[in-house]
Amino acid sequence: MSVPELLVLNAAVVAAAMLVLWLFALRLGDVSFIDAFWGLNMVLVAAVDWWVADGDPTRKALLAGLCAAWGLRLGIHLFLRWRRHGPDKRYVGLLGRLEKRGFSFPIASLLFVFLLQGVLLLLVCLPVQLGQAWPTPPVGLLGWTGAALAVFGIVFETVGDHQLERFKADPANKGQVMDRGLWRYTRHPNYFGDACVWWGLGLIACEVPWGWLSLAGPAFLTFTLLRWSGAPTTEGSMKQTRPGYADYIARTSPFIPWPPKRA
Length: 263
Hints:
Number of strands: 0
Low-confidence stretches: none
Shape: globular
Mean pLDDT: 93
């Protein structure tokens, strides 16, 4: 299967998955569960490519396996969080603003949530698409380095999420700022781990012809985490609800783990 054919197949699979999820959203009146399927749909793409693409078997196994480990863990984590907390205020606010501009809930959710995320996830997961498309060369030093970085990222964000869940589960911490464990060294261990995973997968893909183009995926993801829908949204909300969050920002690295500044 040629690369263009593979990309078209992936787009069709994601479009079908998003349309099915959109129908569920119409039934529920809530789109918040889409965050869980951000990673799960990437796993679907990786699995399709592993099945049909003609790439090097070892590289295919690395890309599909690491993507599955990342996406399944994150998807289940976010799905359970949605079940516990219900509709996400970000989506409620977004759809509310769109409805004031004349968009109905079905149209707004389809265009600005499901189809938009479908396009963006196809961009982000370019490494698992392009990296599985070529049978040569075999996995080399760059690929194994990328695999190690991806494993590190999965472990890092898993530990960070676990520490945050334990912190939130303690009633004594209500209204407090999480500044322990990995959160002492970076304000966003989950985002940093996410970026490591996808830059690692990008390095694996870089070994194939034209694989460097796949770096557009992790580059865009890093931009969104730092400048768009990640840290800016989270920190804007935390500043309003956590009195000590401004001090936490002043002493803690925004992204790359680093010892906190002294007061």
